């Protein structure tokens, strides 16, 4: 039994997340964790809300709330939505926790003791009308790289280039819109990433289990040459800056930069979990406490990769303490909305709460997993979504399960029939299923979700193909034993199909397994496909026929949703 630590990029606190956020980190992390649990491994799945920095302050101000109150409410909203999407975290924490404050301050002071923190004077944008320094995200303007007119001071959402606020063309305050800005001196702490460049490159060189997208982004940063990174900001909300356990002189009105403290939230949320459950968090995070046998897997969108392959490793490695670093880093491209981007700030696209108003979670989980933005950016359209749901879920899986169970209920009195010997059709099916099961498991291990989805779909399709070949309804009057073999094998395959579907569509899989009476302890990943097909369920066992598993999406619904949420730009 392996020990596997799974983390997802932390969702920002500033509002409900859209489907692109879900597809690029939280959902694949959950699918992978569920798969590994089914394989019998010890899995710890951790996530948290990222609550510090400019987005939290701006969102709270827009809502007319105190920032702490805003974060309290939004954490509960995001936690509840994750539960409704069946994101089965072991703990969903907060970066505003005491644990995160203490660990962030610890890392900063340890890095400074190791000569990797410097106190510097920087040029920073000051808003005269707002009477305050403007942290990077408080400054907006035109990107000097691509000309995008709504670039933020830390990063351009259009081209992805990292920026400094003073780089922007025609900058203005995101607080008031004022262009009455000037550049002034301000003191900050700087992480000397340049001192760590060789060590980080060697660490990236040695990394295995990273897809090409993740490594290419890491090498792009390294090849361009690392820059020392300011890790404090002129803000009120965040982790206070300390030295020797006390407030740092001259930094009383500053906090640590959100991208310094947020990744530490993976560790602090694990500590929160340990406090809540009586477990030991250090055995998951410190190699001197047992974490040397942990496989650590991270999931994130491509815009977060640089921070996780350079900045956070600089913190972890630079501490010279025995912290666990990531083993496998899965990066996703973007899920776009009709050729444009989903956007939390612009309210563009479908958001998690809205999605659940339209359809149950499993519809979205299947679509976003089986058509994940892996090899390149993917495009969401209502028409593609409708086609996938109707074909994969309604026509293939739903049709197969209802087809065999309804026939068996009417002809064999709702029990698994006795009698009959397997033949050529069952032999074909066993070979097909064995091939698909091995492929599905291999793709999940490699975190290739589209390929795992394709093989899962092929397994379901094999069920319909088997029924077409075996034709139990044709044999029922002339050879009841032969019909019994077809029915029994078909129902056992329905069980197998549901077991394999659990990582992606857990609610539907549970409906199927509950209907045919599979005990909780028998729902683990199958090691022997042949045995499952023959006798997953004991002969004579009664079963029920579940309600329609997936309703088809009608053209009228698509027209209504397109009008409500928009379509092509």
Give an overview in words:
The protein is an alpha/beta fold. It has 20 helices and 19 strands. It has helices spanning 19-38, 54-63, 67-84, 98-113, 197-206, 212-224, 258-261, 264-277, 282-285, 305-318, 352-358, 361-370, 382-411, 424-445, 449-470, 472-475, 480-501, 506-515, 529-535, 555-565; strands at residues 3-8, 42-49, 91-94, 117-127, 132-133, 139-142, 151-152, 169-173, 181-191, 229-230, 232-233, 242-243, 246-247, 255-256, 294-301, 328-332, 335-337, 340-341, 378-380. The strands form six sheets. Strands 3-2-1-15-16 form a five-stranded parallel β-sheet. A four-stranded antiparallel β-sheet has the order 5-4-9-10. Strand 1 (3-8), helix 1 (19-38) and strand 2 form a beta-alpha-beta unit. The longest helix has 30 residues, at 382-411. The two termini are 49 Å apart. The relative contact order is 0.12. The model has no long low-confidence stretch (mean pLDDT 94).
Topology:
Elements: E1 3-8, H1 19-38, E2 42-49, H2 54-63, H3 67-84, E3 91-94, H4 98-113, E4 117-127, E5 132-133, E6 139-142, E7 151-152, E8 169-173, E9 181-191, H5 197-206, H6 212-224, E10 229-230, E11 232-233, E12 242-243, E13 246-247, E14 255-256, H7 258-261, H8 264-277, H9 282-285, E15 294-301, H10 305-318, E16 328-332, E17 335-337, E18 340-341, H11 352-358, H12 361-370, E19 378-380, H13 382-411, H14 424-445, H15 449-470, H16 472-475, H17 480-501, H18 506-515, H19 529-535, H20 555-565
Parallel strand pairs: 1-2, 1-15, 2-3, 15-16, 17-19
Antiparallel strand pairs: 4-5, 4-9, 6-7, 6-8, 9-10, 11-14, 12-13, 17-18
Helix pairs in contact: 2-3, 4-8, 5-6, 5-10, 6-10, 13-15, 13-17, 14-15, 15-17, 17-18, 17-19
